[in-house]
Amino acid sequence: MTQDLSKIDILSRREIEARIVAPLIKAFMKELGKEKTLQIAEGVIKGLARESGTQLAKLMEGDTIADFAKGLDVWTKDDALKIEVLEKTDRKLFFNVTRCRYAEMYRDTGMLEFGSLLSCGRNFEIIEGFNPKMKLTRTQTIMEGKGNL
Description:
single chain; about 150 residues; mainly alpha; 2 strands; about 55% helix
């Protein structure tokens, strides 16, 4: 029986995942080495992210920029992300993230080193799963130390 995870906000899901996955990643690093472990983990996480993007397109009943913009509510729920929309057209969606509670959660739980892998590292594949013709361009993240954390 598959559970409907949409009832759990993404920030809470990421924390639950991180509390399980981070210790596993650390244990595998000891056995396999850091590079090999991160390569395997990244591959799995990116695959899951593509599936999430595909599911989001189905949930939004479309895969346009406008549909994706509606889907931002999933990540910003309960101010998990505060964003400032700079431009929104049928062909573009530009925004800045001004607060990232995901990064704050990883920092506060001592797992910031895995934050990019477990959260913002998924974004490019989410877009690919949502609509392979779309392109995400990002210059920096709060998770990586750009901005206020």
